[in-house]
Amino acid sequence: MCPDCEDFARTVLLLGQLALYADMAGADLDFADAVSSSLAVSLPEPPSGTFPDDSDPAEDS
Fold first, then answer.
1. pTM for the complete prediction?
2. How far apart are CA 48 and CA 34, in angstroms?
């Protein structure tokens, strides 16, 4: 796997695990909010081929 692919996959995995943690009873939601924002900002560009070439995330569906 390419280095960018590994970083992207690891960050997405961490975001998913954090979402599961935030849904648990007694979760520290301030922590989850702070960490999720940091993780989301640190996401590298998705590896090429992750999304179709004609997709535009800024475009409303």
1. 0.68
2. 29
